[in-house]
Amino acid sequence: MSKVRLRISMSLDGFVAGPNQSVDNPIGIGGMRLHQWAFSLAAWRSMHGLEGGEVNQSTLVVQESLANIGATVMGRNMFGGHPGPWDAGNPWNGWWGSNPPFHHPVFVLSHHARDPLQLEGGTTFTFVTDGIEAALAQARKAAAGKDVSLAGGARAAQQFLAAGLVDEMEISLAPVLLGSGERLFDRVGDNLHGLELVRTVAAPSVTHLKFARR
Amino acid sequence: MSKVRLRISMSLDGFVAGPNQSVDNPIGIGGMRLHQWAFSLAAWRSMHGLEGGEVNQSTLVVQESLANIGATVMGRNMFGGHPGPWDAGNPWNGWWGSNPPFHHPVFVLSHHARDPLQLEGGTTFTFVTDGIEAALAQARKAAAGKDVSLAGGARAAQQFLAAGLVDEMEISLAPVLLGSGERLFDRVGDNLHGLELVRTVAAPSVTHLKFARR
Hints:
Two copies of one chain form a homodimer. Helices cover 21% and strands 27% of the residues of chain A. Chain A has helices at 36-39, 42-47, 57-66, 76-79, 132-143, 154-162; strands at 4-11, 15-17, 69-75, 105-109, 117-118, 124-128, 147-150, 168-174, 182-183, 196-203, 206-212. Chain A has a nine-stranded mixed β-sheet, sandwiched between helices. In chain A, strands 2-9 form a two-stranded antiparallel ribbon. In chain A, strand 10 and strand 11 form a beta hairpin. The longest helix of chain A has 12 residues, at 132-143. Chain A is globular. Chain A binds chain B through residues 12-14, 30, 171, 173, 175-180, 183-185, 188-192, 196-197, 199-200, 202, 205, 207, 209, 211, and chain B through 12-14, 30, 171, 173, 175-180, 183-185, 188-192, 196-197, 199-200, 202, 205, 207, 209, 211.
């Protein structure tokens, strides 16, 4: 069966977003510090239509995280924009512009129904209002045998982790403190549901920790 | 000047002790899971008077953490026993028996005065009631040019980190969740005071992250 693969950047003190997330600060105050390791990479830049960049020990981790993904699941907060019901007159269409870097079906967990949103490059956003297991079932079907990427944010990741639905987890540990914000493992408990550390990659400004079931 | 060096084991979710620490559970419920990586090491066993054990990638980290240490500072909770004033009739003399594995002067942060305690093998415990900077000054003097080990627990480490008094930090990240307990970085804020990730060692059941000022 296809796997559910979580990849996420986390601070040394356990945060995956800073405090006060907003349209101006999508991952909260200081949250961009979690992702500094990625921005200079050629692998990251090409995914966002940019040229140039570095190749280093993080490259294989980024390339691996993109390989064999057939669908993505994300939380409403990661899709972003605003809380509460969707604004039909001025709809929020995600952070990523008209051609998002997914190029496959994306399922957005939300409490508010909305018609699917089809953008350029093969990315469609489908809004799922009946919980993580329903979203996962739809994503698995859409992935057609490939894996499902769990893209975050914190609350979506927590729900999947607590339910034992994550098959692989790549934590990119940034050697910084945020001090406050959203923690990856809040509300998860003390059970990794069989996930074990299977690979450590030391790279500039980040340590990648891969967990899987043996 | 001699350095202040913190070495501590931390869970993936940021805890350095489990909940409900007591004489029966010195590092809290589940807290021993943080240290499983160490117990099988020859380097750890010989420090505690035991024979045999493994040599692996953790060995150099343990050996390095023991080298060039002239004194140790620890919190009252790590010295352990009970909260509140010392029981003169039945004094708690630490977890380590008559010959503790320090073999140098140890300074214990406490709110309660007590005469120094001299045990076998060169370990003396001195109780310091006037705060971390006074304890550090005494420890530096006793270390006579060698480094000062900051042994924990959580609250002592937090105070030194928040004050920017830590010069090197070796975090042994155990790939487990505790879910609750004492977090290393609570009350520390978002400032590592110039500490940067300078080495990552991937070892069985642990990832060692060394921070220092460049």
